[in-house]
Write a structure and sequence with these properties.
The protein is α/β, with parallel strands linked by helices and about 350 residues long. Among the domains are: about 80 residues, no CATH class; about 90 residues, no CATH class. The protein has 14 helices and eleven strands. The strands form two sheets. Strands 6-7-8-3-9-10-11 form a seven-stranded mixed sheet, with helices on both faces.
Length: about 350
């Protein structure tokens, strides 16, 4: 089964065969300046044992989506609508008691900044053991043994000794491994990894990605990999969801999206990545402008103020009419599929897009 299905439209019912099914997810934050529309009508499916890469610039709604799946938003300032179904259980609208049972046990998250996500007042071993005790009722001794086992499993040397260290005594890569150990201590069926390799050197990054792959094969977990790094996506993802301004603008298999992208925003992301076989003197091609404010997003296609191809559509359609979200393989773009392919071929011939 593929991760993204043809039926994953906003009006479609949750896919009963998928482990995670999201339909028409909308997340609104109330602020002093107004309402931030952080996620705006997102739908997708994810099967067990599969990895979905969610990519896009900062502020596109990636992390907000991951937090929504675990019900981690502050209900006093956040409005979450739509449907999130995890292993047959409704997440949206679930009570805090139900969500606490789900978090860590059924689904877990590796947060973006391991130094701030870990408490400086407790040892690493204590922080890994605590969710295991909470969800399994294990004794302190059993939980301690499990924490040491998980530290060893994620590649921490001398795990029995290092379990008594505090987070500041770990390197960045070791803290990230400890975060993964904490997320996996209860063998969750879904792992949401939010920028798990940020600020790590390439050697440690490769080790973390290999670790996630090994653990997925061992536990059969589904993984949502949130990242802005297309190299990470190419290495690990089965399917790709490209987000912009809180919306899905393209989706498909990793090979389809990375080799034959259909949305101008995806072209821009790929064009800004250096190529190993490219001319070192050739400048990268950045996406002009900045992501829009989600307090007041553009009308029509949210990418149109930065898009170089609005003239290909003609008139003011890009500014006035919102494209349909992609269902299955596709892109939320007013360009016809034939024109998308033709323009992408032109960009390849000009050397602007990596293969």
């Amino acid at each position: 089964m593929t991760t993204v299905t043809e039926s994953a439209g906003p009006g479609a019912p949750p896919d009963t065969e998928s482990f995670l099914s999201v339909r028409d997810l909308r997340v609104r934050f109330s602020t002093e300046d107004g309402t931030v529309r952080a996620v705006d009508g997102l739908s997708f499916d994810l099967a067990r044992g599969r990895t979905l890469g969610v990519v896009g610039e900062s502020g596109s709604g990636k992390s907000v989506t991951g937090l929504s799946v675990l019900g981690l938003h502050d209900r006093r300032t956040t409005e979450v609508t739509g449907r999130i179904v995890l292993d047959g259980q409704e997440v949206t609208g679930a009570g805090e008691k139900e969500l606490r049972r789900l978090r860590g046990n059924k689904a877990a998250m590796v947060f973006q900044d391991s130094l701030t996500a870990l408490s400086p007042y407790h040892t690493v071993g204590e922080q890994i053991a605590e969710p295991y005790r909470r969800h399994t009722g294990a004794s302190r001794r059993e939980a301690r043994r499990r924490a040491v086992e998980m530290l060893g499993r994620v590649g921490i040397p001398h795990p029995r000794l290092r379990a008594d260290d505090y987070p500041h005594q770990f390197s960045g890569g070791m803290r990230q491994r400890a975060m993964i150990a904490m997320a996996l201590v209860c063998d969750p069926d879904l792992l949401i990894a939010d920028e798990p390799t940020t600020a790590l050197d390439v050697t440690v990054q490769a080790q973390i990605l290999d670790l996630l792959g090994d653990l997925q094969r061992e536990f059969g977990s589904a993984i949502v990999l949130i990242t802005h790094d297309l190299g990470v996506v190419a290495e690990t993802a089965d399917e790709v969801l490209v987000m912009y301004a809180g919306r899905a603008v393209e989706r498909g298999s990793a090979e389809q999206v990375l080799r034959s992208p259909r949305h101008p925003y995806t072209w821009g992301l790929l064009s800004s990545v250096p190529r190993l076989d490219g001319d070192v003197a050739e400048d990268l091609v950045p996406i002009p402008g900045s992501p829009p404010s989600l307090l007041d997003p553009p009308t029509g296609c949210p990418f149109h103020p930065r898009c170089a191809f609005t003239g290909e559509v003609g008139g003011t359609r890009c500014a006035d009419e919102r494209p349909e979200p992609p269902h299955g393989r596709g892109a939320a773009c007013h360009l016809t599929a034939d024109r998308q392919r033709a323009l992408f071929v032109e960009r390849i011939s000009d050397g602007h897009s990596p293969d």
